[in-house]
From TrEMBL, chains A, B:
Name of a matching Pfam family: DHQ_synthase
Residues binding NAD(+): 88-93, 122-126, 146-147, 159, 168, 186-189
Annotated protein name in UniProt: 3-dehydroquinate synthase
Family, similarity comment: Belongs to the sugar phosphate cyclases superfamily. Dehydroquinate synthase family.
Organism taxonomic ancestry: Bacteria, Pseudomonadati, Pseudomonadota, Betaproteobacteria, Burkholderiales
The species this protein was found in: Lampropedia puyangensis
Cofactor(s) the protein requires to work: NAD(+); Co(2+); Zn(2+)
HAMAP family membership: DHQ_synthase (MF_00110)
Domain of life (superkingdom): Bacteria
Role noted for this protein: Catalyzes the conversion of 3-deoxy-D-arabino-heptulosonate 7-phosphate (DAHP) to dehydroquinate (DHQ).
Amino acid sequence: MTTATTASSFAQSDRAAIDVVQIDLAERSYPILIGQGESLWQEAHAHWPKGTSAVIVTNDTVAPLYAKALRQRLEGHYPKVIEVVLPDGEQYKNWETLNQIFDVLLGQAADRKAVLFALGGGVIGDMTGFAAACYMRGVPFVQVPTTLLAQVDSSVGGKTAINHPLGKNMIGAFYQPKLVVCDLDTLKTLPAAELSAGLGEVIKYGPIYDMAFFEWLEANVQALVAQDVEALRYAVRRSCEIKAAVVSADETESGLREILNFGHTFGHAIEAGKGYGAWLHGHAVAAGMVLASHLSTKLGYQQDAQFHARLVALLEQAGLPVQAPVLDATNNAQRYLDLMRVDKKSQGGAIRFVVLKPAGKAVTEKVDDAIVANLLNELITA
Amino acid sequence: MTTATTASSFAQSDRAAIDVVQIDLAERSYPILIGQGESLWQEAHAHWPKGTSAVIVTNDTVAPLYAKALRQRLEGHYPKVIEVVLPDGEQYKNWETLNQIFDVLLGQAADRKAVLFALGGGVIGDMTGFAAACYMRGVPFVQVPTTLLAQVDSSVGGKTAINHPLGKNMIGAFYQPKLVVCDLDTLKTLPAAELSAGLGEVIKYGPIYDMAFFEWLEANVQALVAQDVEALRYAVRRSCEIKAAVVSADETESGLREILNFGHTFGHAIEAGKGYGAWLHGHAVAAGMVLASHLSTKLGYQQDAQFHARLVALLEQAGLPVQAPVLDATNNAQRYLDLMRVDKKSQGGAIRFVVLKPAGKAVTEKVDDAIVANLLNELITA
């Protein structure tokens, strides 16, 4: 569905109901379950992959909150449940931390029938997925995203990776989970900054694909910020539906899928330039979307004078930054360009951007350095 | 074809001819080209994947011999050719060395249209393939194997990996090359130990799949040891044909493909137990095949009293060790069992072995620890 659902329509929905969004990739297809409470976990239980052991990979922030409950749910299903608790933070999304997962797996003699469970946000999901892709050349894994960002974006679609000092997500694999379980109850413990970071990715789906959803977001942003669970349920479901449609059409990012990176080329430069972890990914993407929207206007693709102001207003109401930072006091535009040139969308030296043509539909295009530099010089001031 | 070709029949073959063996994996299909001289490289040229740059990954032994020639062949086809020279040896098949490839790729701003070329033996092929699988979540790669072992086994079939201190090839991916180019001329520079290591994998294909090939090997082992290029050409082609048939039927080792690991469960224990690099892989596999053949007899599957002696004689004529080493002076059998339990074929604690049922056909089976321990105690003495 691409029509907007109003706040009043979801207010009457059955709280025990589970929303299911299917990712359709032939033999790699899998469901995303969205819900809360026992009804959700009973349904998840029916979908657990078979295996000789379950390995919960989580971090030291999430573990005290949810690891025990997940362990209890898995113990009835797997002969052995193992836990790996990693340090929390984007700065640990590297080979050394990944290797801690392998050390535990091999130390516990986990075999090819081990099933990994990623319990946490995007960093945990990306690292656990990549560990599952590589361990013994591939073991099954399940995403249990506990942040809004992970539920609406990173846990869905099979992109897994770690960072390299010279670039974000440079080492990774396309590797699909067997199942994604989005427990809306976990969003209740989310700090405001993490919630807004997730809303950045939610808002993204409007301009690239569905302006009716953008309008719904404008009408419901206060409910989302207030963590109204039914507003969040709809936002998660609609985001997953859009992501599912895009990923099912282009699993390995050879075309359409690139539109999901709206705001990300600028955003990745912000994250790398400030040092991973200094800016939350969703915040960097928000500031990046503002730049990408400006770029779309500059290229003549986005002529609705209202839209840009609406995007900025919505991001601000969601608690997101709309001003990209200075990365280099003496030559800021060049620094942005250098950082963006190692982006994975880059080909043969030219930097490719996702632009709106117009709002509601995104395309990917190479843009001359000079145009981008002018834009950066114009919009980013110390 | 599964019939034997005699030495006299290949003696008349056209030296300029190129043998092509096709790996049939739907959209991941690719050819193996086997030949020598300009005719081979002209054919290869027609198959190079498109790309913005070519990245030759090789080691400090192979680079002085063949890197310049390959660079010259690639320069006409790719705008940019980059070289990465790694230290030579199984002990460098680890994350630190793999990371050197990523450092160069990112340092040179190589993008998703970069094509990696693995120029070297099995270690280079496994690491380059894994780097290609992971870099930006996957870039194309070409295998240019320069050892017999790599030409007949490791370069074909898409198994890529690095070692972990707790186990060989534990971190990796199934990732197919776009092309394999086997230049028989490179075998002329191969040290005798490397040649025999390759013959270990060649000999393997007889007992697991094709006893007519085993007979051909018995008749031609002297020519192979003397590096007769036409004997080698047939051995490489027939080995690749058998591997192609097996891999095409089971890409990700969920069944049939496991038979290619005949001798490898014991062999991996020898490699790990002696420390990676102390025993060449092909030598460890040879000693492992002798144990696996004994195990087949002990289980009652291999009743031809002659076969075992023929296998040992053939391995010895090929210059291969047939006696497995002591790995632990006080409790050798237990040490072997412990090392074998982390093998990727292991499931739920039971160790699975490839056994002959009978010679010419292999199956995979769980075997009780007690039976294996008895065998090891019987056959391995200090």
